[in-house]
Design goal:
Layout (H helix, E strand, L loop, with lengths): L3 E4 L3 H14 L2 E6 L7 H5 L2 E4 L12 H11 L3 E3 L9 H9 L3 E2 L4 H8 L1 H10 L7 E3 L5 H11 L3 E5 L8 E4 L5 H16 L4 E5 L5 E9 L5 E13 L2 E7 L6 H17 L4 E10 L2 E8 L6 H8 L3 H9 L6 H4 L6 E8 L1 E2 L5 E2 L2 E2 L2 E3 L5 E4 L6 E2 L6 E9 L2 H14 L1 E3 L5 H8 L2 H4 L7 H4 L2 H4 L6 H22 L18 E7 L2 E10 L3 E6 L2 E2 L3 E7 L2 E6 L2 E10 L2 E6 L2 E7 L14 E3 L4 E6 L6 E2 L4 E7 L2 E6 L4 E6 L6 E2 L4 E7 L4
Parallel strand pairs: 1-2, 1-4, 2-3, 4-5
Antiparallel strand pairs: 6-9, 7-8, 7-9, 10-11, 10-13, 11-12, 12-15, 13-14, 15-22, 16-17, 18-21, 19-23, 20-22, 24-25, 24-32, 25-26, 26-27, 28-29, 29-30, 30-31, 31-32, 33-40, 34-36, 34-39, 35-38, 36-37, 38-40
C-alpha cells in the first residue's frame, strides 16, 4: 500500500485528497508557494515543503522541486490534483522515473488525450462521434480564413492543449477571426505552454454532458454515469449535477459505452472524464480530461463511492472493487462553484480578504479557504464547491439555493447571488437549458443583491441597532441605558449607510413607555417592533412578521444576513474627508495583474468601448476599454508591467462636441 502521499497541488483539491488519505491511514505531504504559506491546506497535511515563489511558474509548476520535495519527505506516491501539472505527461514520467507511484493514468494516455486534435482522431477511429475540425498550425492568414469558411460560421477557435475555457474564442464572422486566433494562441501559450489552436463548428444550442470513467490495470473500464455541466460562464462550468435531466436510460447507456470505448482506445487507467456536446438527441466527443474533475463530488454523492480512494487503490495495483463494476445511482446531486468574482462587471475576478466564510452544519463544502483567508491574484478565483444531495432533483436544487443564500460570505464579492438565481430560474428548474443560458439571461441582473430595496432598509435598521447595542455593552458607565435614551423626547440618533441602492439614513431613539421609534430616510416606520438585539443578532417584527438579522461588523462595513439574503452596508463617517479628484477620462486597473498588450498610443483617437489595454490576472486575459470617446493624452504602462488595483493605465481626453 501507499504509505505517504505528496499532493502536487493546492487549496481545495489538496484538502480533498488529504481527507481520504486520513481515512485510509496514509501520511500526507503538502507543497506550497509563498502566498500559500499559511493556507488551510498546508495545516491539513502531516508535513509541508515550501516551494518558494509566488506565481505557479515559480512554485507548483516546478517539476524538479516537486520530485525533490517527495524525496526529502520520504513520500512514495504523488497525486497531481487537478490543474497545474495534473495533465502533464512529462511530470507523470518524472514521478515514475523517480521510483514513485503516480496516482494517475499512463503518461502516454495523458499525452494523447492532452491534444484535442489527436484525441479526436483516436476516438473517431474507435467509433465515437466527433465534430469536424481543422488544425490552424502553420497556416497563414488567408489559409486560416479559408479553414473557417470550410467549417462554417459561427466557429469556435480552441486551444488543443488544456481546458477550462482558456484559449477559446467564439467567432461569429470573418471580421473577428484573426484577432480571435491570436488571442487564443497567446492565452493557450500562457496557460499551457502550447499555442496550438484549431477551429470547429460552433453548435448553437448544445448541452455539455460528461461521463465519469474508471479503469484498472486488469482490463476493466466502467462508466460511473453522467454529469450535466451546461451552466457555464466563459466556457467554464459553474453548476453541475448528476444525473442529467436531459438523458433517457437509453441515451445514458449509449453515451456510457462511447466513453468507455474512448478510454479503452488510449489504454486508460484510473479516473477520467469523457466530455460530450449533446443536442437534440445526438452527441459528439468534445475532449477527455485525464484527471479527477472539479465536479467529481456529484458523482460521489449519487454512487456512494469515494473517487479519490479508488484512484489510490488503482495506483497501488489493485482491481476495481465489485461495487464499482455495477455502480448504483440514487437520488440527485447538485454542485455550485463559488468564485471570488463580480458577475455584474463581466465576471471580473476579485482579490482580498475573506472576513467570514460559514455554512449551515451538514452541508458538504469542499474548499481551500476559511475565515481570514486571502484571495490572491496568482491563482484561479474559485474559492469553494458547495454540494447538496437529495432524493429528487427538485429538492436538491431548492436546498442548494437556500444553503447558498443563508451562507455567511463576508469581505469579498462572489457569484453567490448569481448561483442562487440560476438555481431558482424557471428554465433551470424545468431542466430545459443549454450552454448559452447566461447569454439569454443577463448575468448582471441575475447577480444583483438578493434583498430588495425594502429589505435592504430593514437590514440597515438592524445594523444600526446592533451597533448601538455594541456601544452600550462596551460603555464604561450606564451600560444598561440604551444609546440615545432621554427622559423626554429628543432628536433621533442617526447613522447613514451606503448599500447597493445608494445611501440609507436610519434615525432611531428609545422613548419612555413608547419604546423604540425608527425613521428611514426621514419617514417614520410605525409598524416596527424590536424583539431583541445584540451586537451580532437583531430580531425585528415588521407588520406582524418577525425576521432575524445576523450582523458581522468589520470596521465601517456591516455585513447583514437577513431573511431576504445578504446586504453589505458601509457606515458613512459623520464628518467625511474630502476626496481627491481623479484625472478625468482615466482608465483604471480593475485588479492587480500584468499588462499583456497596449493597443493605443498617445495622440490616438479612440471610440467609447474600444479595447485599449489587455491585462492578465488570475490565469485569464481581461480587455480594458475606453471610458468614452476622445484622444489618448497619456499612456502610463507598457507590456510586461505589473500594476496594482485602481492604478491609472491610460488617460483619454474627451473630445468637444463643437
Amino acid at each position: 500500500m501507499i504509505r505517504k502521499l505528496l499532493v502536487a497541488n493546492r487549496a481545495e483539491i489538496a484538502r480533498r485528497v488529504f481527507r481520504t488519505c486520513r481515512e485510509m491511514g496514509i501520511a500526507t505531504v503538502a507543497v506550497y508557494s509563498e502566498p500559500d504559506r499559511h493556507a488551510p491546506f498546508v495545516a491539513d497535511a502531516d508535513e509541508g515543503v515550501p516551494l518558494g515563489g509566488s506565481t505557479p511558474a515559480e512554485s507548483y509548476l516546478r517539476i524538479d522541486a516537486l520530485i525533490e520535495a517527495a524525496r526529502r519527505t520520504g513520500a512514495d506516491a504523488v497525486h497531481p490534483g487537478y490543474g497545474f501539472l495534473a495533465e502533464n505527461a512529462a511530470f507523470a514520467r518524472a514521478v515514475i522515473d523517480a521510483g514513485l507511484t503516480w496516482v494517475g493514468p499512463p503518461p502516454e494516455a495523458i499525452e494523447t488525450m492532452g491534444s484535442k486534435l489527436r484525441s479526436k482522431r483516436l476516438v473517431a477511429d474507435a467509433g465515437v462521434p466527433v465534430l469536424d475540425s481543422i488544425d490552424l498550425s502553420g497556416l497563414d492568414e488567408e489559409a486560416i480564413r479559408e479553414a473557417a469558411e470550410r467549417i462554417g460560421y459561427p466557429v469556435l477557435v480552441k486551444a488543443s492543449a488544456g481546458g477550462g475555457g482558456k484559449g477559446m474564442r467564439i467567432v461569429p464572422d470573418s471580421e473577428h477571426l484573426l484577432d480571435a486566433v491570436e488571442a487564443a494562441r497567446r492565452e493557450s501559450a500562457s496557460a499551457f505552454g502550447d499555442d496550438t489552436v484549431f477551429v470547429e463548428h460552433y453548435l448553437e444550442a448544445p448541452r455539455h454532458i460528461e461521463i465519469q470513467v474508471f479503469a484498472d490495470r486488469f482490463g476493466t473500464t466502467v462508466s460511473l454515469h453522467e454529469r450535466e455541466c451546461s451552466i457555464q460562464r466563459r466556457h467554464q462550468k459553474i453548476i453541475e449535477e448528476a444525473p442529467s435531466p436531459a438523458l433517457t436510460a437509453e441515451l445514458r447507456e449509449r453515451m456510457g459505452k462511447a466513453a468507455v470505448a474512448a478510454a479503452e482506445a488510449v489504454g486508460y487507467v484510473g479516473a477520467g472524464t469523457v466530455e460530450f456536446l449533446f443536442q437534440r438527441g445526438e452527441f459528439w466527443f468534445l475532449e477527455m480530461n485525464t484527471r479527477l474533475q472539479v465536479e467529481h463530488p456529484v458523482t460521489e454523492e449519487i454512487t456512494g463511492l469515494d473517487l479519490v480512494r479508488l484512484q489510490l487503490l488503482v495506483a497501488d495495483g489493485q482491481p476495481l472493487p465489485d461495487e464499482v463494476r455495477e455502480p448504483q445511482m440514487r437520488g440527485h446531486a447538485v454542485e455550485a462553484r463559488l468564485y471570488a468574482e463580480d458577475a455584474t462587471r463581466g465576471f471580473l475576478p476579485v482579490t482580498g480578504r475573506l472576513d467570514r466564510f460559514r455554512f449551515d452544519p451538514g452541508v458538504r463544502v469542499d474548499t481551500g479557504v476559511e475565515d481570514g483567508s486571502e484571495i490572491s491574484i496568482h491563482y484561479d478565483p474559485m474559492i469553494a464547491k458547495v454540494i447538496v444531495w437529495a432524493p429528487s432533483r427538485e429538492e436538491a436544487t431548492s436546498r442548494l439555493a437556500t444553503v447558498l443564500q443563508r451562507a455567511e460570505i463576508h469581505g469579498l464579492v462572489t457569484n453567490r447571488e448569481l448561483l442562487v438565481r440560476i438555481l431558482r430560474h424557471p428554465e433551470f428548474v424545468a431542466g430545459e437549458f443549454d450552454t448559452h443560458f447566461l447569454e439569454r439571461h443577463d448575468p448582471a441582473l441575475l447577480a444583483r443583491p438578493l434583498p430588495d430595496a425594502d429589505e435592504e432598509r430593514m437590514s440597515a435598521v438592524a445594523a444600526a441597532l446592533a451597533a448601538q447595542e455594541d456601544r452600550r455593552r462596551s460603555a464604561k458607565v450606564q451600560a444598561t441605558i440604551p444609546s440615545g435614551w432621554r427622559n423626554s423626547p429628543s432628536q433621533n440618533q442617526q447613522v447613514v449607510f451606503t448599500g447597493s441602492d445608494g445611501d440609507v439614513t436610519v434615525g432611531y431613539r428609545f422613548v419612555p413607555r413608547a419604546g423604540l421609534t425608527v425613521e428611514v430616510d426621514g419617514r417614520p416606520l410605525s409598524d416596527v417592533r424590536l424583539v431583541s438585539a445584540s451586537p451580532d443578532r437583531v430580531g425585528l417584527e415588521v407588520a406582524g412578521r418577525l425576521g432575524w438579522y445576523r450582523i458581522h461588523r468589520v470596521g465601517p462595513v456591516h455585513h447583514v444576513d437577513g431573511p431576504g439574503g445578504y446586504c453589505r452596508l458601509v457606515e458613512q463617517p459623520r464628518f467625511p474627508e474630502a476626496e481627491l479628484e481623479d484625472t478625468p477620462g482615466s482608465l483604471h486597473a480593475p485588479m492587480p495583474g500584468k499588462i499583456v498588450k497596449v493597443l493605443v498610443a498617445e495622440g490616438e483617437t479612440v471610440d467609447e468601448g474600444q479595447v485599449m489595454v489587455v491585462l492578465e490576472a488570475m490565469k485569464m486575459e481581461h480587455s480594458l476599454k475606453a471610458p468614452h470617446a476622445g484622444v489618448v493624452s497619456n499612456v502610463r504602462v507598457g507590456p510586461g508591467d505589473q500594476v496594482e488595483a485602481e492604478e491609472v493605465l491610460v488617460v483619454v481626453d474627451e473630445t468637444s462636441e463643437e
